[in-house]
């Protein structure tokens, strides 16, 4: 009886963990996006002005509620670290992706599209991973439609099952509501394809 009660108690206390991969070119605003998400969720967060370019990768854990935790993997976008993207861009390793794009720099739009496309080409089953395309630096964007068109076309061309496009400015934490809520729903609805881990 004691053992039964203990296992019920243990099961009740287990939390669902989802691993969220944050990718995008250097300087697109990935680390700012993560810190802004923490601020939106009223968690301790770093001042955006103190963020330095990421060297390699950083992992942080964010409690979403009493039963759900996100392991957020922030990988550097610098060219010399992009080889690291490949080790995560795989449905065995992540439950969802946020792909952050700097919309203040149209000259790098094609590079951003090409880097994402290349990951799907080498890992075709990644189309099962929900992906939020985060069109960031909306405060400095002059022509958002070319970004929306290119990424929407890419998602259709690759037949990605669950994708959506969002516009954000990282010093507006409320901008994080829509992408985080969308990801939360996708993670639950996609459980049959990519099961969470428990901790
Ligand atoms: N105007 C504006 N600047 C932003 C926004 N988000 C981030 N930035 C700035 O963009 C620069 C790069 O931000 P990071 O968050 O370090 O970018 P990153 O993608 O993590 O870069 P790496 O770690 O080098 O891959 C910083 O100066 C940020 O303050 C935004 O929404 N609007
Ligand atoms: Mg960074």
TrEMBL record:
Entry binding sites for Mg(2+): 31, 54
Originating species: Kluyveromyces dobzhanskii CBS 2104
MF terms in GO: GTP binding; GTPase activity; metal ion binding
Entry annotated with the keyword Magnesium: yes
Full protein name: WGS project CCBQ000000000 data, contig 00012
GO BP term, example: intracellular protein transport
Entry's Gene Ontology cellular component terms: Golgi apparatus
GTP-binding as UniProt keyword: yes
SUPFAM superfamilies named in the record: P-loop containing nucleoside triphosphate hydrolases
Residues that, per the record, bind GTP: 24-31, 77, 136-139
Top-level taxon of the source organism: Eukaryota
The entry's keywords: GTP-binding, Magnesium, Metal-binding, Nucleotide-binding
PROSITE patterns: ARF
